[in-house]
């Protein structure tokens, strides 16, 4: 069963139960009942809906911010791993060292200059980036150490390739949008309900009340925009950047 169908049925069932109870109770009210003696629940309901929606907004903002921070962290781990590979091959012969560093530089240059733009547009990494990282892996693993000193550096280099590969995979998984459609549905419907409840109160056309109503609506719109902007860690204004690569490889990235 589709999650949208389950959601629709659950919402319809909840509304139906509440409305049925209200109708049944209304029929049991005596004719001499004075409604002025019962408390008005409009303000209470408005306050509770506002509080609940504020909690949902806070959780959504925390979730997308955490996703963006995690995306930036995996970029740092990947850049650091490639930097370690480039530095630790110092113990290898000059020809091997030059070949490995050239492969690392080619991978870093491609990631910074092309792949980040592709991730922003398509929400995924590229096959060419995978091939360049595979070339770095082969350059590291295919070399047979000539002595114990080189042998001691071999396994740490292989481990750093694994770290870079794992970080690249995590970067690819973080490239797309992270908020499910059902969550956006709840956020938008909640915003409409929260703003719409303003009209259930006795709002007047005084400057102060109109200003507060406008600011309240603008605040909700800003928070929804913030969630949307953070939702794609590599694709929008406050996106994760390639700064770790440019900081560690200035000779490659310019």
UniProtKB/TrEMBL annotation:
It comes from the Bacteria. The keyword Transmembrane helix applies. Keywords: Membrane, Transmembrane, Transmembrane helix. This is Membrane protein. It comes from Streptomyces filamentosus (Streptomyces roseosporus). It holds the Pfam family Bestrophin-like. The chain crosses the membrane at residues 44-65, 181-204, 210-228.
């Amino acid at each position: 069963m589709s999650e949208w169908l389950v959601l629709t049925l659950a919402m319809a069932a909840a509304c139906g139960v509440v409305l049925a109870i209200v109708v049944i109770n209304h029929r049991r009210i005596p004719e001499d009942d004075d409604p002025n003696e019962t408390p008005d629940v409009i303000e209470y309901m408005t306050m509770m809906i506002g509080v609940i929606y504020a909690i949902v907004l806070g959780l959504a903002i925390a979730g997308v911010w955490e996703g963006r921070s995690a995306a930036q962290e995996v970029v740092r781990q990947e850049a650091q791993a490639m930097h370690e590979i480039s530095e630790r091959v110092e113990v290898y012969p000059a020809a091997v060292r030059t070949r490995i560093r050239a492969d690392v530089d080619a991978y870093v240059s491609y990631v910074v200059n092309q792949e980040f733009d592709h991730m922003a547009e398509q929400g995924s990494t590229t096959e060419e980036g995978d091939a360049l990282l595979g070339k770095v892996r082969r350059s590291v693993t295919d070399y047979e150490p000539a002595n114990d000193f080189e042998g001691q550096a071999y396994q740490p280099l292989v481990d750093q390739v694994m770290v870079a590969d794992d970080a690249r995979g995590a970067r690819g998984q973080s490239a797309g949008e992270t908020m499910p459609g059902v969550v956006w549905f709840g956020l938008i419907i909640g915003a409409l309900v929260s703003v719409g409840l303003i009209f259930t109160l006795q709002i007047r056309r005084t400057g102060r009340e109109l200003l507060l109503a406008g600011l309240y609506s603008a605040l909700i719109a800003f928070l929804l925009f913030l969630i949307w902007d953070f939702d794609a860690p590599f694709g929008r204004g406050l996106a994760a950047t390639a700064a770790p690569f440019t900081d560690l490889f200035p000779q490659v990235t310019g």
